[in-house]
Amino acid sequence: MKKLLFLILSVIVFVSCSDEIPEEKATLKSGRTVLAYLISNNNSTNLDKYLKQNLVDMYSGLAQAKDSCTLLVYYRPYSSDADGLEGPSLLQYNSDGKGNINNKQSLVGQDLTAANVIKAASISVFPDETHNALDKKTMSRVLEQMLKLSPSTNYGIIFGSHGTSWMQGNEVVGRSFGDDAGYNINIPEMADVLEEVFSGKQLDFILFDACMMATAEVCYEFKDVTDYLIGAVVETHVYGHPYDVILPKLFRTTVPYDEICKDYIDYSRELEAWGTCAAVDCSKMDDLAEAVANSLGENSEKLLTLDIDDIQQYGVGSFKYFSFDIVDCFRVLNDGNTVALDDVINKVVVAKEALYGIQYPTVGNSLYTIEEGHFCGIGMYLPYKVEKSSWNSYYETLSWYKAVGWERYKTLLTDK
Q1: Which DSSP string corresponds to 121-160?
Q2: FRET label pair with 88: which of 60, 338, 351, 377, CA 20 to 30 Å apart?
Q3: Of 280, 262, 205, which Cα lies nearest the Cα of 36?
């Protein structure tokens, strides 16, 4: 848990549809401000209408808050946005805890549309309308402006877009996180941005509403940035989380991570989709790395003959074998004995839920299913056991690779 630093910050106040940025003083708020960083500018797989619905649901959830609180949303719209956004924008919503948002009775019923929710915000369009939301400097600038707009004792942040876990971004074909007209950001660089922006501030959680982010590699990169990471180890459906249900819970002093995971899975079940969700205590990731390193060392002679098809894995199509269940890996490797990992995993993964069995085939197909008893909530890649040279060479640059000591087994697994 990082120490809280209580600062009075200058604030940039954004006014509707203005490029002028007048500066005022804002009072430090007690409690959590929730931020959302949503990128819908995806030409190949347009997320705009789905993220707009997420925005509507966030607004609806905020209206249910019982205490005053603030939601700040960065929205990078699709290039042909039709709901009133002229370009990348910041939208601010302040709830008084009595059903009023931005000093007006909250929208309900037929009035609760994306266009009306956008109109109800305190909003500013960024002057550089074509900026890349996934450029490190741009992301840093946007987040810093959000923090200035609502200085708080602690924060939580939602990232909504495409994702491909730890894998290196490569235009639209392979994203690490995000897709802004083909641009993306790799997880180590994203962690650098957040560590710089939130230095001395309390970031309670990161919620990834993006595919395949609940992996050891991702969580390890963020271990010095946030306390908890919420995400799915599999590909996610386009509808995202039920924010009208979970957003009020994200403002609680103690976030009920078990409820957040259950709400997502219940929602996925209603949609007849698929899903996993886990909340990971990032402060325990060094413990997990040590446990995995020890388990690899104890079973190193079995690595060469390990059949990866016997392990619960989490990728489909071109992402097949990108991640395997950590506990299930050592179940197979160590003849069913996972005692050395069970205790650590139970501390690292504080909540988990999934849709199990053949009635919930992952990504709407029958390539594989999530098997109950083989899902610990978090996955990891097995370098060199998967023969993808581009994946393996990039994997060697990741912090998790070094922490676990995978280099010790490179010769064993590649000298064939």
Answers
A1: SEEEE-SSTT--TTSHHHHHHHHHHHHHHS-EEEEEEEEE
A2: 60
A3: 205
